[in-house]
Design goal:
Length: 407
């Protein structure tokens, strides 16, 4: 390997020094494509500063991965594997990142492996390293997999800080240095008990970033509109989602603007920020078994949308029953060590246990429709169109004490 060095200035973490192999990977068309994919999809329509890209995040993940690998005193080859996994881990993302992912047939991690194996990247990496080892790491497998994709990994640490920085939302500020310097690697990645507060802060940050950014009600509307347009465009042959990993954001915008029908209309709405409106929503925490709501299938939602459209004489393509996405907070499963004893973070932290109890506070079921449809709908109830658990009146009253007193 040559000794050529190149520095890239990252706006969040500072300088990243790249070697010749990393430069060749960075300059490949496959890596340059994610320079044209926004990290937060369409969220710049809510937070105007959120224009950062998947490439920036990948560079940031490389920086943090490098810091963690050095702290763990890995040998040179393993340090480089961690850096390469960080650099390449999002190369399979479709246009507008997670906004398109639920429409695709597989997750971006699977597409990442495909891109690496079927492109020039396979030849470039294979000159020095085993490609399969890097793909395994990206998918959280193997001895080093948890560094890049685990309970408390460098991917998550970077996107929380970066997304907070560019949206201006203060919740994502976490103490990365404290977390990294309290890690050790045995059979898996372990956190020293001294780092618990920093891990708690990262978990709380992610918890609050969901309702504030990732699942803000307008984010849900934007994603619903875009995904339906993408799905219909694929069905109509306007584009081919089997090759989603070759499109960037600009490609999709251009295709939609130059098409006809629904895709063009949705693009016009997005261009002019003429978005659908939230007609009604209810927190899933009001139900007796809120976790069951996530078992509702896409077919059930589509059937409900059709029934609403028929009852109120609406265009079904502009009626959306939406259940907010909710992540598994795997950070709760982080293993913490104190001398020779090992615990789960959730066993030691009252903060984590508090978040467990509050996990269903923010997700909600919503009905999105155009503004001009609002006057047509009357006496709407979600229960008329979806099979939902019973409402837990004790929960509702407890969370609405002030309103109850007023009534």
């Amino acid at each position: 390997m040559d000794n050529e060095k190149k520095f890239i200035r990252d706006s969040v973490h500072g300088n990243l020094q790249l070697n010749d192999l990393e430069i060749r990977i960075l300059d490949s068309p496959e890596m340059q494509r994610i320079r044209r994919i926004k990290q937060l999809g369409l969220i710049s329509l809510i937070y105007p500063g959120a224009n950062h890209t998947r490439l920036e995040h990948s560079l940031g993940t490389t920086i943090l991965g490098s810091k963690l690998a050095k702290h763990l005193e890995l040998d040179k080859d393993d340090q480089e594997l961690v850096r390469l996994a960080g650099l390449l881990h999002d190369i399979g993302h479709g246009p507008f990142s997670h906004a398109s992912e639920s429409v695709l047939k597989c997750q971006h991690e699977e597409l990442t492996g495909k891109v690496i194996k079927t492109s020039q990247l396979n030849d470039i990496i294979s000159e020095n390293y085993n490609v399969n080892n890097i793909i395994d790491m990206i998918n959280g497998r193997g001895r080093l997999g948890h560094l890049v994709s685990g309970e408390l990994d460098v991917d998550r640490m970077d996107y929380l800080i970066r997304d907070s920085h560019y949206t201006g939302v203060a919740y994502g500020v976490i103490d990365v240095e404290r977390i990294i310097t309290n890690m050790k690697l045995e059979k898996t990645l372990l956190l020293n008990i001294k780092g618990i507060q920093a891990a708690e802060a990262a978990l709380v940050a992610r918890y609050y970033m969901y309702p504030s950014v990732y699942q803000h009600h307008t984010t849900q509307i934007l994603n619903a509109m875009f995904r339906r347009a993408l799905k219909l465009a694929d069905l109509e042959g306007i584009l081919d989602l089997k090759f989603a990993y070759t499109y960037d954001d600009t490609d999709i915008v251009s295709i939609f603007r130059n098409s006809t029908g629904y895709a063009k209309e949705i693009m016009k709405r997005l261009d002019n920020r003429n978005l659908l409106k939230r007609y009604k929503s209810t927190s899933i925490s009001h139900y007796t078994h809120p976790q069951d709501i996530f078992k509702i299938t896409k077919k059930e939602l589509e059937k409900g949308e059709e029934e609403i459209s028929e009852k109120y004489d609406l265009d079904k393509d502009y009626v959306f029953l939406n259940i907010a996405e909710y992540p598994e907070f795997n950070e709760m499963k982080t293993q913490v060590y104190d001398n020779e004893e090992i615990f789960l973070l959730s066993d030691l932290s009252t903060v984590v246990n508090g978040l467990k109890q509050a996990e269903f506070n923010y997700p909600e079921i919503s009905l999105f429709i155009p503004e001009e449809y609002k006057h047509k709908i009357d006496r709407f109830k979600f229960e008329d169109y979806l099979t939902l658990p019973e409402i837990d009146k004790s929960k509702f009253n407890k969370s609405h004490t002030t309103q109850s007193i007023l009534f």
